[in-house]
Amino acid sequence: MNIRFMTQIETALGTRVLRHTNLPVGFGLTGLRLELADGRMAALKASTEHDDHSLTTEAFMLHELKSHSSLPVPEVYYSDEQLLIMQWLPADGSITPRVQHHAAELLADLHGHPFEYFGYKRDTLIGPLHQPNPHTDKWLSFFRDHRLLYMAKEALKEHALPQKLYDRLEKLADQLAQHLYEPAHPSLLHGDLWSGNIIAGKNGIRGFIDPAIYCGHPEIELAFTTMFNTFSTPFFEAYEAITPLEPGFFEERREIYNLYPTLVHVRLFGASYLPSIDRVLHELGY
């Protein structure tokens, strides 16, 4: 890290950096763990792109979660278009049944508070990808137009999704009311819950990072936690003890909701995710 950049960090934080070590963060960003002279530990993300708004958007999303929920997220110490400096949350545990129970309690509380509309006050990001959030009164319309078809159209434009597969997704989108239902109210969602975005301690969750927030149906959040086996039976038993799920979630709706993050992965990582989309559509009869 060059001296000029380190001076910028110290000026932003109002203290000296005693030590720094590399931190893997992905998507072309630089990551550092900082030990500060005032006793704090911090995590830093830095971008070399002067017009990159991803870091200010991430800071916004963390602020929103902290302001509108009790979900543990890192405090943002400083942010601009090239720097995001946050509280360091040590990961000294794994996703044990005890941690899953704690996660279920936190997420059931997050999902239990009603919001006025689906979408959000501004667009957000999932990873580095744009995520549109226009105010929408109905969940099925929002999921169809601004999640499933939006991400499918972007993948099609990038030649990552074949036209025939897109056409089948469009047929499913026209029939969503046969498979999904409207929730009792819009819920604030973290939006990107997999193990890499969960900081586990020995006795529970220390924090959730890298959000992709919006207001939606809690089931899309719960579905995402199964995509890479982040959470399993202990989590769902604890969650349903607080908020029971409607029948059919595991058998059908989970697969439909996971089409959205699968399309995200198609855009980011390529064709290896296409067979999953084909399988789900085939099983649903499309």
Q: What Rg is obtained from the alpha carbons, in whole angstroms?
A: 20 Å
Instruction: Briefly note the CATH topology name of the largest domain.
Output: Aminoglycoside 3'-phosphotransferase, Chain: A, domain 2
What class do helices, strands and sheet pairing give? alpha+beta
* Beta-strand residue fraction: 15-25%
Largest sheet: 5 strands, antiparallel
Poorly predicted runs are none
**SSE topology string:** HEEEHEEHEEHHEEEEHHHHH
CATH superfamily heading of the largest domain: Aminoglycoside phosphotransferase (APH), C-terminal lobe
Domains, number? 2
Q: Which architecture of the largest domain per CATH?
A: Alpha-Beta Complex
> What is the first-to-last residue Cα distance?
52 Å
Q: What is the number of strand segments?
A: 11
Helix content: 40-55%
What gross morphology would you assign?
Answer: globular
Structural overview:
This protein has ten helices and eleven strands. The chain is of the alpha+beta class. The protein has two domains: 3-87, 2-Layer Sandwich (Phosphorylase Kinase, domain 1), CATH 3.30.200.20; 97-284, Aminoglycoside phosphotransferase (APH), C-terminal lobe (Aminoglycoside 3'-phosphotransferase, Chain: A, domain 2, Alpha-Beta Complex), CATH 3.90.1200. Strands 1-2-3-5-4 form a five-stranded antiparallel sheet. Strands 6-7 form a two-stranded antiparallel ribbon. A two-stranded antiparallel sheet has the order 8-11. Helix 3 runs parallel beside helix 7 (233-242), helix 4 (139-157) packs parallel to helix 9 and helix 6 (218-227) packs across helix 8 (249-257).
